[in-house]
Amino acid sequence: MQFLTWLIKRLGFVILTLVAMSMLIFLLVEVMPGDVAQTVLGQSATPESVAALRESMGLDDPLPVRYGRWAGGFIQGDLGESLYMRGVQINTIFWRKVGHSVILALTALLFYVPLSIFFGVLAGVKAGKLTDSIISFFGLATMALPEFVSGILLITLFSVKLSILPITSVIPIGQSLWGNLHILILPALSITFVMFGYVSRMQRSSMVTVMNSDYIRAATLKGMPRGYVIFRHALRNALLPTITIIGMNMGWLFGGLIVVETLFGFPGLGSLTLSAIKTRDIPLIEACVLFITAIFVFSTFLTDMLYVYLNPRIRFKGGDA
Amino acid sequence: MTNDFVLQIKNLSVSYRTLNDAVSAVRNINLNVGKKESLGIIGESGCGKSTLSYALMDYLPSNGSSTGEVLFRGENLLTKTQKEMMAFRGNRIAMVYQNPYSSLNPSLTIGYQLDEVTMFHRGYKAKKARKASVEALADLYIGDPAGVARRYPHQVSGGMQQRICIAMALLCRPDLIILDEPTTALDVTTEVVILDIIGELKEKYDMSMIYISHDIGVINKVSDRIAVMYRGEVVEVGDQRTIFKHPEHPYTRALINCMPRAGVVKEEVRLNTIPGYVARRSAADTGCPFVDRCEKRNADCEAKYGMIERASGHFAACDRAYAEDVPDRKRAALKIPKVGNGSAKEEILLEISDLYKYYGNQHRRVRALDGVSVSLEKNSVLGVVGESGCGKSTMGHTISGLMAPTKGKILFDGIDISISWKQRTPEVLRDIQLIFQNPGRSLNPSFTLEKIIGRPMKKLLGIQSREERKKRIVDILQKVDLGEEYLYRKATQLSGGEKQRAAVARAFSIAPDLIVCDEPTSALDVSVQASVLNLLGDLQNESGAAYIFISHDLNVINYISDYIMVMYLGRICEYGRKDEVVGPPYHPYTQALLSAVPDVDPSLIREPVRLEGSPPNPTRKITGCPFAGRCHRKIGPICDTTPPPKVQASDDHYIMCHLPLDQLGDAELDKPGNLTKTESLMKTVKA
Fold it and tell me: Which of B149, B224, B493, B675 sits between 20 and 30 A of B655, alpha carbons compared?
């Protein structure tokens, strides 16, 4: 019962955040310099034709009316029409790119989460030993390397030297991503390079703390095998801070991979956002940014849920026997 | 011969490698534990008693190494691999730790943590393991064991957590159980129950036991033999009564005399202190570990140092405890004018009337203070005693202004101070000071003592000249036995006792009228506690400041206070001059507390009053007497429904109880109202 009220409260919070964020995004785009109609028609347009377009696009309506129209369309699933590619519904291009991004993000998650947790745990358990030093050094090195550097290194190794993977991650015209899954490998690897350091270091330090706790000593002196102590007793408690880090990076992973997507030419949300900004395609910018925000909000919500699941101290409060 | 002993420790030494040298934590220990025998190990922090227990389990940090032999039923544990040790740990040798809450995994259910023991050691399947776990919990008199098994550790009380830890240790019926300060984190009335259970189960399962504690009283209750440890060595070992009645080693004697105990009060005697502190021992140091602090040392005592059987079964490394060539230091009483002798009443300094403090919201309201009225005379010490959660600290906090009370009035020298510190005048802020329990956490680690002590002088006394402040700081430092050289030390560079002295110096630096001491000695070792108590007594006497002295330790309260107030669930049970409170007639709760305190002198140990259950939920509104639910003298429904009257026993001695005064004596202990050991254990099932 307590949990249900908590859940409802949290969900209400999620919606509130989204509404507030949508207003903010709308306003931000609004205050951006430059006139939309002018942009659409180009520098040579006559003032009359600009005014006519403004009229037809409803740009002269008061702000709340325009926000209402925009937000209303969003709720009904209508993201509007692209300004740059006249007559193209954003829906037709947007969701395809989102799909690509989601698949890339999930692939990257699949790569780096188990890897960094595993090596983080290993380093934590072997704290102070050579294994720990090697893992920590590697983590620090990859963390310091920007993704365009590690990406180029990966391309040089796998595509140029070994020729086993394509240089770019472009999907050939007329084909879908599903037939070309191998193009995901290099971008996912370079994301792994970026995230590995953060996550494994966090995992290591929480593992060290947990392994020095009284209950781990108690479990060991109960005669439990070491592996069991590490995985059943320590890991669950040591995962909590790591989950926060992973959750916090979810928004970036699903929508903010501008550098990686540009480097590999991957047709995802990141490169879409970038081109929308370059072409001042305002409805598209709004759709992209709002989507990324939504990912942020929902992944934070999911992180909290996972936290509650893993930490019974939050799940059940008090109750003395 | 070997079979007579469950455990034989032969020349066991443990040392830790550090950057510069090797530290010797435990050295040359020779101890035997017989079948069904209970060995108590006593010593102050840093004496190596915990290291010893982990060395027995062959569980040392990676920079630790041990030499010697630990023979468990003839097998040397120190030569076993960690894998081989698994078969011993938790199975044939089990451990119980000081802090039950942190020893249980917060994210696994209690049942899970119990089940895995038998699943690993006995190969039980899940169902059978759970059955064994539930039985073990029931063995510990835990009500609804199956339900408790499904809970998480944070959902049960501290006493219950410790019972769970004990149940876990007993699951495989070990030959030896090592208990490392198992009751130190618990309230005295809970401690009584846990000690009862330990004693009973030891008999039931024919176990041998090693009981580690810093508290001679507790050790006396549970041990057949006692080993005294100092700086890694066992300096004396012998029969429980012998150790107390006739210690041979000067350290043992000094330690016993440090402890405040029944009948020891500041008017009559100063507590014994041991000068200096426990220094780290490098592996290169040899000879008597106590020599630099020993008052009985003479020219040839080092040469004669060595473990020798002084009497049958009584070994000591030195026999100079009562040596007459070095006379005993005089322990003069504090010269204290008797208070409250009726003739000239002191002026009232602090008057609290009908004080309430609630925490939480409308749904969950914790009544931390539930109508407390008391007054304090100038130049006197009011001891506030009670178990955790009784509201004693909250009272201290409202007086010192850390928080404002919900309702009620606090008059300080005629000024209403029932407000938080932000609204108080600088004069009031100056005149009321606080000393906290943990000086390590209450002193800013990055400040020097000059800054820590000088700050209130600057802020509250307005002394702007640094030279002037420094002069005063040095003065006050000398008063607390810290020399001028401490001026530029930081809090982190001080030992526990020195830190608390610095905290005392800070409180006294601006000559306050009232000092709220919130458990100032609870985190300290007994010998350090003794010196801080002496210091507080001296300073109070000299400065004429009044104290509100908050403690859970009735012996400490009895030593330092003039008046004692006993609290339970935010209300006062009994208030009076200390000699009146600790003697009959008493409130049943006072009686229970008094009887629960384990006495240092084994011949004085009496049957404790055993209380049922644990303190009730503080969020529940109480209509009658707050203690009614657990009272061994409960009369009937009147206790639950009607608040007890305030009965005046003498001039200033009040007892809140429905029972008439003449029935609140000692003799009543033997009357049918008091539970026997088993009855009390059975009754806790309901809790």
Answer: B675
